[in-house]
Amino acid sequence: MQKFLKLIPMVLMLLIMINPAYGDVLRVPLDYATIQSAINAANPDDIVRIAPGTYYEFIDFLGKAITVEGESLLNPTILDGQDSGCLVTFESGEGPDSILQLLTLQNGRANSTPSFTGGGVTSIGSSPSILDCTFKLNAGNRGCGIYLSGASPMISHCTFSYNTGQYGVAIFAGDTSDPAIFDCLFHNNTTTNSGTVFLDNSSFSILNCSFDANTAPTIQGTVSIAQSTGSVKNCIITNTVNGYGIYIADGTSSVTIQYSDVWNNSNGNYGGFAAAGTGCLTTTPSFTTGPFGDYYLSQTAAGQPTTSVCVNAGELNVSNYDLSGRTTRSDQAEDTSLVDLGYHYKIMDPPTSTPIPTVTPTRTPTPTRTPTQTRTPTNTATQTTTPTVTRTPTPSQTPTDTPLPRIIRVPGDYAYIQHAINAARDFDTVLVGAGVYYELINFMGKNITVKSESGASHTFINGSDNGTIVTFNQGETDLALLKEFTIQDGYAQGGSQVKGGAITIANASSPVIEGCIIMNCVAYRGGAITISGINSNPTLKHNVISYNEANVDGGAIFISDESQPLIFNNLIHTNSAGYGGAIFAKECQPVIMNNTIIGNSASSFGGGLYYLDASGEFTNNNVVGQLEGEGIFVYDSANKPNLYHNNIWGNAGGEYGGAIQAGEGDISFDPLFVDGPNGVFYLSQLGAGQDQQSPCVNAGLQDASEISLDTYTTRTDHHVDIGLVDIGYHYGYQAMYTPTPTPTPTATCYRDSRLILSGDVFRENDHFKLQLRLFNTCPELYIDQFIVLDIEGNYWFWPDWTQEAAYSPGIFMPTLSQALLVLEFNWPHVDSTYYGARFWCAAFEENHIDLEHIVGEINYITFGWTNK
User: What is the 3-state secondary structure (H, E, C) of 330-396?
Assistant: First the structure.
């Protein structure tokens, strides 16, 4: 403790001494194109300030006493290492006045050769200050977030998540290092040989940190210690997977563990020579979701039903620590009295409500994550069920004796969406202006409408890959409405709860999600949305859910635990998972009606849908063109869904799998999709001017008017659907787009491409395959392509593997999808695993191999490991 009481004032004094009056501000990219060029030009006490955006470079402080910083936590400044090396280096004797702050460091690679280095930061013989930084998705050998050798840095207010590797995946400290680790959050990190934090032959202080849902080996811990001296105080260490909470390997270490909550760790809370000291607890910390994450502490004063045992449970009064402007409360009231245990979130300044300009320095596209999956055995069975095609909706609550509803405006009345929700009462509307909002929100049990003012295409809630973006978990009814947002970049993996990347619905909550675009989210289950719990009966309607990924189940939607959602008239495409590329349903009864489910992938079963002991109804859906897996797969069980009038066709793994067969009125035909004003999944119809009639027209179970689709359309001329409903997704929720009547070049309808790899690649004697899967929604065509292999800046062109560009002959591309084997060879290097090879692939219109005629491309992908 004495170490912290000495170090924190020293750092604060140094920060105060760095006065802009005595140092220049060098702006990137305004004054300097790259961060390193600004550092090269900087003098002592200068500040290198980096605009929001993503920067693909590696930087070295060069021993300079300068500050390198982003502009704010809300508008991220990201350094991305593309798995190629360490992002930030301190190895020239830097001291605490060399400051790195307000940056996100991701996709760094911690290598063991030629010398040990970290993925995010390497500090050798240096003692910098690392403040308010985020370390995520870094990987490699040791110190994947921060690697310390003979170093004594101050690491405070930082978060470490989704880092993977062998030793100290968040922080590795060795060779007589002496780090001070203060007020940091560690969650969902995975190590194979030691701990999330590994302290070896060092001294240390860990104060007011939270550790949750990290994975460790059985004989190690989230915090692993060997031959070291130090203290762990005011911390929360919970839910370790496999290992201990704290593990001390030897009796020579001298470690004090006090005033900490160590609870629910798989192999035990304390392992080896570790033991609880004064003030330690062993009980749930009662985490709750707040404006900026999932690790606030439940407190009745903030509106939760209970108060966490970690509140006011620390060693000293909060005034003894540098925690001003920080909180553990979801309502952002500052911590007072005895310090609360664990990580304290920053009480944020208001975010900007206008879109942030994109910074585009010279860069290479981000590598694609490839999840590893486990197969489930397949059985077959048949069962007869009584059809029921009507779902009883959750009863709405009728207001009685309540004040008149209000409109609360963001950013007019409140800068944050969450602050407006906090101020709202039942039946109010939170009306959100156009812009990008970097926050995570929770409806907090309130039956309110949160709606964009200008539509989903102009209003974005961005999760910055930092958790579930929208949470409903306090019994919201169908009077809770989320409407017309683009919800993107959510990231929710692992942990003690199942959470969706974009939206989590649980605990008897039944909101309505309407007219949203949900994309680019990742989760362990439910890449976009998870729905769980008895009486969790939400309605998802008129949404577009695409480009989401689940490591295991439900690339778009994961449904479980007796919930009964209505999933109506959504377009669900290009999502991926191990099971259920679009939807995974387990022990539940969903009603899934009039959706188009296309181009999704399951590496195991159910490219479109996977049912496990689940029933419900599946009616009027188009399930076509899944890239991997069956259209619909039902595991052998006592329950299975009732199928009526669906079109299931052209799926890579077959139309039906497991214990399911075609239902009453099901067909299997090419739906004949055509381009229209608002998208590419209209149905070809003679009445709209096409020369063919889709078999999905008038092929549904009910009249369109019976299910409220008579004001929507599948026709390119936007005449509404009348009579028997057409199968699949209907356009018309958004206003019809009228294109500008100017000539445009004719382009192919080719839509997407994917890279398929065989196992771990580029290791000794690996057999390597590269397949290009093409996804085409138009009539058959020919394309040209070429592939480039980049070996540390030297380019080799396929198929001849020369340094002169060589192009393949035209490739026949049928309608929908096909996998084409384009490479197959044994990796020639036999000395070691190889890191640093990249492929780039592009497809072109026939006889037009130039940049203006690219119809699809596969971005750079770095090989050598797959655990990401």
Answer: CCCCCCCCECCCCCCEECCCCCCCCCCCCCCCCCCCCCCCCCCCCCCCCCCCCCCCCCCCCCCCCCC
Give φ, ψ of 686 to 5 degrees.
-60, -40
Write out pLDDT tens, residues 101-134.
999 999 999 887 767 789 999 999 999 999 999 9
Round to whole Å and give the CA distance between 622 and 109. Answer: 43
| SS3 labels along 743-805 | CCCCCCCEEEEEEEECCCCCCCCCEEEEEEEEEECCCCEEEEEEEEEEECCEEEEECCCECCC
Structure tokens given for 335: 């911590």
DSSP 458: T
Q: Which distant-in-sequence residues (6+ apart) come within 8 Å of 33 by Cβ?
A: 361
- The full 3-state SS of 382-432, as one line of letters, equals CCCCCCCCCCCCCCCCCCCCCCCCCEEEECCCCCCHHHHHHHCCCCCEEEE
pLDDT band of residue 759 (cuts 50, 70, 90) is very low
Element (H, E) at 523: strand 522-525
Q: How far apart are CA 463 and CA 74, in angstroms?
A: 10
CA distance 61 to 769: 41
Confidence of residue 755 (pLDDT cuts 50, 70, 90): very low
Angle (nearest 5°) at CA 412 between 408 and 416: 75
- What's the rounded Cα separation, in Å, for the pair 429 and 420? 9
In which band, very low, low, confident or very high, does the pLDDT at 431 lie, cut at 50, 70 and 90?
Answer: very high
Query: In the chain, count of helices (H) and strands (E)?
Result: 3, 79
| φ, ψ of residue 607 in degrees (nearest 5) | -55, -40
pLDDT at 823: 54
Mean pLDDT (the chain, rounded): 82
Confidence class of residue 753 from pLDDT cuts 50, 70 and 90? very low
Where does the pLDDT of residue 368 fall: very low under 50, low under 70, confident under 90, or very high at 90 and above?
A: very low
Total residues found in the chain within this entry: 868
Q: Look at residue 868 and give its three-state secondary structure.
A: coil
Rounded Cα distance between 465 and 55, Å, is: 16
Q: How far is 517 from 546, CA to CA, in rounded Å?
A: 8
SS3 call for 674: strand
What sign for the dihedral angle of Cα 404, 409, 415, 416?
positive
- The arithmetic mean of pLDDT across residues 137-166, rounded, is 94
The tokens of 798 are what?
Answer: 């396929």
CB 614 within 8 A of CB 585: yes
Phi, psi of 257 (to 5 degrees): -120, 110
Across 47-64, average pLDDT: 94
Distance of alpha carbon 688 from alpha carbon 817, whole angstroms: 26
pLDDT at residue 842, rounded to an integer: 61
| C-beta separation of 855 from 844 below 8 A | yes
User: Number of C-alpha atoms within 13 angstroms, CB side, residue 840?
Assistant: 15
User: What are the distances in angstroms from CA 387 to CA 391, 413, 790?
Assistant: 12, 50, 57
Distance, CA of 850 to CA of 567 (rounded, Å):
43
User: What's the average model confidence in pLDDT over 594-598?
Assistant: 98
Q: Which residue has the tokens 């010398």?
A: 115
- Alpha-helical (H) ranges within 28-84 are 35-41
CA distance 554 to 577: 6
Nearest-CA neighbor of 751 among 769, 778, 714?
A: 778
Query: Sheet containing 566-568: which strands, arranged edge to edge?
Result: 407-410, 429-432, 449-452, 481-483, 512-514, 539-541, 566-568, 591-593, 617-619, 642-644
Sign of CA dihedral 577, 582, 587, 588: positive
- Distance in angstroms (rounded) separating the CA atoms of residues 753 and 858: 7
Question: Which of these, 79, 104, 30, lies nearest to 438 by C-alpha position?
Answer: 104
Distance, in Å, from the CA atom of 498 to the CA atom of 488, rounded to the nearest integer, reads 18
